[in-house]
Amino acid sequence: MINIERIEQASHILLVTTNDTFANASALYSFILTKHKKVSLQNSTALEHKLSFLPWFEKCRHNTPSTADYIIEVDSNTQKYFEFFTKNAIKINKKMATAFYAGLLSQYDAFDAVDCDGTIFATASKLLALQADKKTCHEYMLHRVPLSHIRLKEKLFASLLLQENATHAYVSISDKDLQSCNTKVTDAISLMKEFLAIVHVTQVTLLKSDENNKIIKNIKEI
User: Fold this and answer.
1) Do 120 and 80 form a contact (C-beta atoms < 8 A)?
2) Domain 147-220: which topology?
3) 38-48, pLDDT tens digit by residue?
4) How far is CA 25 from CA 51, 99, 132, in A?
């Protein structure tokens, strides 16, 4: 976990982030700025456009600054960071609240995840009271879809095979498909849940067609 004393002592803090953790990194960046500290953001892979509305998106760099004397590997547990702020009496401004709300939205699958309990809803409510920009979070994170994902979804639907009285959906993808859509296997996995919306389907299996139909992922209706 973050060491508040090390933040106080450090002169240059580096936040290492990814697409899954950037919302939390954004909130941390805002907080560290209030301490009048030098702070940098580092991402190893390109950040997704859906995160571009968050504060400090344009500050991310691929390089590691040589002067950083405290490096924080940011993780995706938004509730943990919210509790850290609360425990240390850190005032949460609108930018921080929006970033944390976006983190919850991402981590808990738009509040539809199995482990999204009352504690998470209570935190979301507190963040909205702190003026988190719910409308913009939902617009960017839930309603804006990259063209590459639309193309990938088309290929997945084209490969759809229903078995076991149409309760089990099989979809497949190949490296060639991924390359032509400029996507990754993780993108295909993220789209799997949509096939559970098909009437009668209770299970979806993603196969790698160019690897003897190796099973990549299997999900079931909750």
Assistant:
1) no
2) Diaminopimelate Epimerase; Chain A, domain 1 (3.10.310)
3) 999 999 888 98
4) 12, 8, 16
Instruction: Kindly report the length of the chain.
Output: 222
- Cα(136)–Cα(98) distance, integer angstroms: 9
Sheet strands side by side (includes 214-220): 161-163, 168-173, 203-208, 214-220
Helix locations, 139-184, DSSP H:
147-158, 175-181
What are the pLDDT digits (tens) for 136-155? Answer: 999 999 888 888 989 999 99
Give the three-class secondary structure for 191. helix
> 173 is written with which tokens?
């993808």
What span, in angstroms and rounded, lies between the C-alpha atoms of 160 and 172?
A: 7
- Does the reported pTM lie above 0.85? no
The CATH number for 4-143, chosen from 3.20.20.70, 2.30.30.240, 3.90.1640.10, 3.40.30.10, is 3.90.1640.10
What's the confidence (pLDDT) of residue 220? Answer: 92
pLDDT at 3 over 90: no
* H or E element, residue 170: strand 168-173
Residues forming beta bridges with residue 73, ordered by sequence position? 16
88 has a pLDDT exceeding 90: yes
